[in-house]
Design a protein that fits this description.
Helix content: 40-55%
CATH class: Alpha Beta
Shape: globular
Low-confidence stretches: none
Largest sheet: 7 strands, parallel
Structural class: alpha/beta
Family: Belongs to the short-chain dehydrogenases/reductases (SDR) family.
Number of domains: 1
CATH architecture: 3-Layer(aba) Sandwich
Keywords: Oxidoreductase
Mean pLDDT: 90
Number of helices: 9
Distance between the termini: 49 Å
Strand order of the largest sheet: 3-2-1-4-5-6-7
Organism: Mycobacterium sherrisii
Pfam family, one: adh_short
Radius of gyration: 18 Å
Protein name: Ketoacyl reductase
Length: about 270
């Protein structure tokens, strides 16, 4: 057993719920009848989404505007995860940056590590105790196919996603036999606000793109069945396997050449 059947007391918490994959996760879970707690920075977007989901699917939707890069905000959400009956947690909050690492603002890079890795780890820790006690529950952590390879000019982003992937797989194995699972979602390029924020359009390959709705459906199926890792789409699967199994001595020069052809720095 992993994500239990919907019930009044089986809330799924979704961070980063105001747009992109997070919003589509909310839509897919609401369609299946799960009560939701939506978390993101932008209240107006959360309110709009909550209204749509409540009207369309007749489910209870609560919004909680928080900036999870702030320690006090994380503690507030973690307290609810520890004390309430939570069926699922989708750690979708995160962002990326791109550029030459030594030239990027350190404060922004540190915030990226905090949100992509530290917040995800803290919230997962807060949720698991109650899930294991109840013998059911599922955590979804958003990684990326970038988890399987170092990405020059997105060094911190790919490093945080490698952490998410490794952490999620390790905890998934620790939970064997408990009825609880942790699933790492590793999408390829997804046409969302993310690429705009990261200034990373050159890293997107149109043939590899999978829609946010399709990514969310694959992720929810993974939560329902307790999968360890989900990589939506044929091309992202090929790319992730290439990153896993290609020697770094070949992979990094290939990435350098790819950057050159896409108009980015090659050295």
């Amino acid at each position: 057993m992993s994500l239990p059947k919907p019930a009044n007391q089986s809330t799924v918490v979704i961070t980063g719920a105001s747009s992109g994959i997070g919003a589509e996760l909310a839509r897919g879970l609401a369609r299946r009848g799960f009560p939701l707690l939506l978390v993101a920075r932008r209240r107006e977007r959360l309110d709009e989404l909550a209204g749509q989901l409540g009207e369309e699917f007749s489910v209870a939707v609560e919004v909680l505007p928080l900036d999870l890069s702030d320690a006090k905000a994380r503690a507030k959400l973690a307290d609810r995860l520890r004390t309430e009956s939570i069926a699922g947690l989708c750690n979708s909050a995160g962002f990326g940056t791109s550029g030459v690492f030594r030239e990027l603002p350190l404060e922004r890079e540190s915030e990226e590590v905090t949100l992509n890795a530290l917040a995800l780890m803290e919230l997962t820790h807060a949720a698991l105790g109650g899930m294991v006690e109840r013998g059911a529950g599922a955590v979804l952590n958003i990684a990326s196919i970038a988890a399987f390879q170092p990405l020059p000019y997105m060094a911190v982003y790919s490093a945080t996603k490698a952490f998410v992937q490794t952490f999620s797989e390790a905890v998934h194995e620790e939970l064997h036999g408990t009825g609880v699972s942790v699933t790492a979602l590793c999408p390829g390029p997804v046409p969302t606000e993310w690429a705009e924020i990261a200034n990373a359009k050159r890293f997107s390959v149109p043939l590899a793109q999978v829609s946010p709705a399709d990514v969310a459906e694959a992720a929810i199926d993974g939560m329902l069945t307790g999968k360890r890792t989900v990589v939506p789409g044929v091309v992202p699967k090929v790319v992730s396997n290439g990153g896993r199994y290609t020697p770094r001595s070949l992979l990094l020069p290939a990435i350098r050449i790819g950057n050159r052809f896409r108009g980015g720095p090659s050295h």
